[in-house]
Design a protein that fits this description.
mainly alpha, 2 helices, 75 residues
Protein backbone atom coordinates (compact mmCIF):
# COMPACT_ATOMS: atom_id res chain seq x y z
CA UNK A 1 0.00 0.00 0.00
CA UNK A 2 1.44 3.36 -1.01
CA UNK A 3 1.45 6.15 1.56
CA UNK A 4 -0.71 9.18 0.83
CA UNK A 5 1.09 12.49 0.71
CA UNK A 6 -1.01 15.10 2.56
CA UNK A 7 -0.16 17.84 0.08
CA UNK A 8 -1.26 15.65 -2.83
CA UNK A 9 -4.54 14.84 -1.10
CA UNK A 10 -5.12 18.53 -0.43
CA UNK A 11 -4.44 19.44 -4.06
CA UNK A 12 -6.87 16.74 -5.20
CA UNK A 13 -9.56 18.04 -2.85
CA UNK A 14 -9.01 21.57 -4.15
CA UNK A 15 -9.39 20.24 -7.70
CA UNK A 16 -12.67 18.54 -6.72
CA UNK A 17 -13.97 21.75 -5.16
CA UNK A 18 -13.08 23.67 -8.32
CA UNK A 19 -14.82 21.09 -10.52
CA UNK A 20 -18.00 21.13 -8.43
CA UNK A 21 -17.92 24.93 -8.38
CA UNK A 22 -17.89 24.97 -12.16
CA UNK A 23 -20.75 22.48 -12.29
CA UNK A 24 -22.82 24.47 -9.80
CA UNK A 25 -22.13 27.75 -11.54
CA UNK A 26 -23.22 26.45 -14.94
CA UNK A 27 -26.37 24.92 -13.45
CA UNK A 28 -27.22 28.17 -11.66
CA UNK A 29 -26.65 30.20 -14.82
CA UNK A 30 -28.81 28.01 -17.05
CA UNK A 31 -31.65 27.76 -14.55
CA UNK A 32 -31.59 31.53 -14.00
CA UNK A 33 -31.53 32.16 -17.74
CA UNK A 34 -34.52 29.83 -18.19
CA UNK A 35 -36.37 31.69 -15.44
CA UNK A 36 -35.74 35.12 -16.96
CA UNK A 37 -36.87 34.04 -20.41
CA UNK A 38 -40.19 32.73 -19.07
CA UNK A 39 -42.53 35.67 -19.56
CA UNK A 40 -46.06 35.70 -18.08
CA UNK A 41 -46.22 31.98 -17.34
CA UNK A 42 -47.91 30.15 -14.51
CA UNK A 43 -45.92 29.04 -11.49
CA UNK A 44 -45.98 25.41 -12.61
CA UNK A 45 -44.69 26.31 -16.07
CA UNK A 46 -41.99 28.50 -14.55
CA UNK A 47 -40.91 25.69 -12.20
CA UNK A 48 -40.76 23.33 -15.15
CA UNK A 49 -38.58 25.76 -17.14
CA UNK A 50 -36.22 26.18 -14.18
CA UNK A 51 -35.91 22.41 -13.76
CA UNK A 52 -35.17 22.06 -17.46
CA UNK A 53 -32.52 24.76 -17.08
CA UNK A 54 -30.90 22.85 -14.23
CA UNK A 55 -30.85 19.68 -16.32
CA UNK A 56 -29.34 21.53 -19.29
CA UNK A 57 -26.74 23.07 -16.99
CA UNK A 58 -25.82 19.67 -15.64
CA UNK A 59 -25.38 18.36 -19.16
CA UNK A 60 -23.00 21.18 -20.13
CA UNK A 61 -21.42 21.65 -16.72
CA UNK A 62 -20.51 18.01 -16.15
CA UNK A 63 -18.24 17.98 -19.18
CA UNK A 64 -16.65 21.27 -18.22
CA UNK A 65 -16.16 20.10 -14.63
CA UNK A 66 -14.48 16.85 -15.70
CA UNK A 67 -12.24 18.76 -18.09
CA UNK A 68 -11.28 21.23 -15.35
CA UNK A 69 -10.61 18.38 -12.93
CA UNK A 70 -8.31 16.69 -15.43
CA UNK A 71 -6.44 19.92 -16.15
CA UNK A 72 -6.00 20.81 -12.48
CA UNK A 73 -4.88 17.32 -11.46
CA UNK A 74 -2.54 17.03 -14.44
CA UNK A 75 -0.70 20.30 -13.74
Amino acid sequence: MTPVDPSTAREFLEALVAAFSILGGVMAYTSGFAATTAQDQSADALAHRINEGIAEGFRWGAGAAVLALIIIVWT
